[in-house]
Write a structure and sequence with these properties.
Keywords: Membrane, Signal, Transmembrane, Transmembrane helix
Strand order of the largest sheet: 4-5-6-7
Largest sheet: 4 strands, antiparallel
Organism: Deinococcus soli (ex Cha et al. 2016)
Helix content: 55-70%
InterPro entries: TPR-like_helical_dom_sf
Number of strands: 11
Protein name: Tetratricopeptide (TPR) repeat protein
Length: about 700
């Protein structure tokens, strides 16, 4: 049937393109038309951006302007507009169809335009799916064009382009007659817009005092977003949400103005379409606190419960911003281990310092001996004077520090990947998305295959999607294969696949929805309301996405070992300073591992506890007790408490860890470590005195 319609459209277009006697030229920004529809001329403003064409189709003139193709009728009045995901670079009528090429960020796409001459005045539509990139150049274009029209020419601009509602709204705001203004406001809601433009229009209608019209605009925005494949199960970054009209920013402005009821309308929009937006946890809590302040505790509790319901599927079920907590926890552990390791090495070095000076004197001195007798000097490094248990403790501290620093690196890389536009623009698929996906280094496996196949399936390429799913047998893939089967009319196979998916994963909402079990979730409600009768796709959760783009901690550490210099590259979300720290700790850990093979250099009891060592033993709990496992525990506890208290100095910040209210407990724990260390230190001094006495008596005998 689609082929028949395309053939008929092509034959009709061939006849239309053969219409003689019409001439349209574009000189600079002046468009002239003579022939069908009369003779007219328009000077196109610079705000429309780059121009392409023109192309004559029947009595219409098609013109590419910015990220849109316009259909101009009699007098140059706009009768149709096709919104595209990039700047239109060319229009072509070859092959009996009208195609438009777009270019954005080096990505070229081609779209087939359907010219409807039977619509009032003539209209345009796009045959393929148009997935809008989160780029303000595209999503904010209509509003930008309207904003640049001078007030003196506003009425004429609105007459020539009645399909730009931002022009009509500006005209309505300039009206003195309220009835005329209301009539113009109604006109703003009568056209077809991409959902980012609907959101921007809703904010302006709200600010202009037309809340009911704003509500209708938000309803239209949801319908258009749903038709484009935007889904509430896919996360949206702060940048993408800003390009899509910045509804979260507008909520913040409404709350600051005390317009809580209007903020509730916009919060509902976010909850229904973009519940997993970056910064959502903080905004949900802010709105709940505002409701609490108004005595609406029940509503506040319901919003908090909704925010908690979004945690399943996130990393460690910590919530949408859980990676921040993971990163801060790894930073805190790294700081604690770093302090502990530094304290241990410093204490061991101070203890060995006097004996080391005596032992290296015959070799040429503490430093020159490295040049004269390097092998003999290597046996007299300060860790050589430490006992095997002490060396093992500091080696384990170094390896643990390497692991926690790797955790920070992993959290940084994962966060950057999850915030990348390709994974956080609210939908998958489309030419821009596929081009961006190539910039991500996906790890081969079922998670990456699911992501790629989903993009193809959303674009309507079911055969390619089936090939990409391949032999993958997890529940999510089975559900999506069932969606393809149902789309092709094979209901028995579809139900078998849905049942198999639900049996493999009983909490899989998509499969339950497709079997008619009516699961209670925001995504199921969205599907039922805006895509009635359509099967529900299964999307990868945050954990699957993380496995696809970065893998686990071991993958990050292995990658760092294979390409150490890549750790210094901050372009992928890493940090040069963190990379240097990882390289430094890796080298230190390797040296400490080698030190385990060194024979212990004798250290007489009389020289084993010099004054500096005793001072550090009192100042650094556990550092002088590493011969005992409890010394390592005490040192680790001291490092953790000091690291947790460091935010009081302002030197470090752990924004995602609740340490502010625990200061009293931390100070008490710090005092406890010093008390235990003092007791253990006194006992160690007693043991040392007895040992030294026995040594002197043995020498006397």
């Amino acid at each position: 049937m689609k082929r028949v319609r395309a053939l008929l459209a092509g034959l009709t277009l061939t006849a239309l393109l053969g219409t003689a006697g019409a001439t349209t030229t574009l000189e600079g920004r002046v468009l002239r038309h003579e022939g069908a529809g009369g003779t007219w001329q328009r000077t196109l403003p610079d705000a429309l951006g780059p121009l392409s064409g023109p192309l004559e189709v029947g009595n219409l003139v098609l013109l590419g302007a910015g990220p849109a193709v316009y259909a101009l009728g009699a007098g140059g009045v706009v009768t149709g507009r096709a919104d595209l995901p990039g700047i239109v670079s060319s229009l072509d009528a070859g092959g009996d169809v009208v195609t438009a090429s777009t270019l954005l960020g080096g990505v070229t796409e081609r779209f087939t335009l359907n010219v409807n001459l039977n619509a009032q005045g003539g209209g345009l539509s796009v045959q393929e799916r148009v997935a809008l990139p989160p780029d303000p150049v595209v999503t904010g274009w209509l509003a930008s064009v309207a904003d640049q029209v001078p007030p003196a020419t506003l009425a004429d601009a609105a007459r020539l382009d009645p399909l730009n509602p931002f022009l009509t709204l500006r005209l309505a705001q300039a009206q003195v007659d309220p009835y005329e203004a209301l009539s113009l406001v109604r006109r703003t809601l009568g056209g077809t817009l991409p959902f980012p433009a609907w959101v921007q229009l809703a904010a302006r209608l709200d600010g202009a005092g037309f809340p009911s019209a704003a509500d209708l605009a938000l309803t239209q925005a949801q319908a258009d977003a749903s038709a484009r494949g935007v889904d509430p199960e896919i996360a949206v970054s702060r940048a993408a949400l800003g390009a899509f009209g910045n509804p979260s920013g507008y909520v913040g402005a409404l709350l600051a103005q005390g317009r809580v009821d209007r903020a509730g309308v916009w919060m509902t929009y976010l909850r229904q379409l973009h519940p997993r937006f970056e910064g959502g946890g903080a905004l949900y809590e802010r709105y709940a606190r505002t409701l609490d302040a108004q005595g609406r505790e029940g509503e506040a509790a319901e919003w908090r419960q909704f925010a908690r319901s979004l945690r399943p599927g996130t990393l460690y079920n910590l919530g949408l911003e859980g990676l921040g907590a993971v990163r801060d926890a790894a930073r805190l552990a790294s700081l604690a281990l770093g302090l502990s390791l530094l304290a241990a090495l410093l204490t061991l070095a101070v203890r060995a310092f006097p004996a080391q000076a005596d032992d290296t004197r015959d070799l040429g001195g503490r430093y020159r001996s490295w040049l004269r007798r390097p092998l003999a000097r290597a046996r007299r490094v300060f860790v050589a004077y430490a006992s095997p248990s002490e060396r093992l403790t500091v080696t384990l501290l170094a390896l643990a520090l390497l692991g926690t620093l790797g955790g920070v690196q992993w959290a940084n890389l994962s966060g950057a990947a999850l915030r990348s536009p390709v994974l956080s623009s609210g939908t998958y698929g489309g030419g821009w998305w596929n081009a961006q996906l190539e910039t991500l280094t996906l790890r081969p496996g079922p998670d990456a295959a699911l992501l790629t196949a989903l993009g193809a399936q959303l674009d309507g390429e079911d055969t390619r999607a089936r090939n990409l799913y391949g032999a993958l047998g997890d529940a999510c893939v089975r559900n999506n294969l069932g969606v393809i089967a149902r789309t092709r009319g094979d209901e028995p196979q579809a139900r078998d696949l849905f049942r198999s998916a639900l049996a493999a994963q009983p909490d899989l909402m998509a499969a339950a929805f497709n079997l008619g079990l009516k699961p209670a979730s925001p995504e199921a409600a969205f599907q039922q309301r805006l895509r009635p009768g359509q099967p529900r796709l299964c999307y990868p959760d945050q954990r699957r996405l993380t496995r696809a783009v970065t893998g686990d901690l071991s993958v990050t550490l292995r990658a760092g070992l294979r390409a150490p210099l890549a750790l210094l590259d901050p372009s992928a979300g890493g940090s040069a300073r963190l990379g240097l720290a990882l390289l430094g700790v890796s080298g230190l850990g390797a040296l400490l591992l080698l030190s385990l093979l060194l024979p212990r250099t004798p250290l007489p009891a009389a020289r084993s506890r010099p004054a500096g060592f005793r001072v550090l033993g009192l100042l650094l709990p556990g550092a002088a007790l590493l011969d005992s496992p409890w010394g390592g525990v005490l040192l680790g506890a001291w490092g953790a408490v000091v690291a947790a208290l460091l935010p009081l100095s302002g030197l470090v910040v752990f924004a995602n860890l609740p340490l502010v209210g625990a200061q009293a407990a931390l100070l008490g724990a710090l005092g406890g470590t010093y008390a235990l260390n003092t007791l253990a230190f006194v006992l160690a001094e007693i043991r040392h005195a007895r040992s030294a006495g026995r040594e002197r008596r043995a020498e006397g005998n």
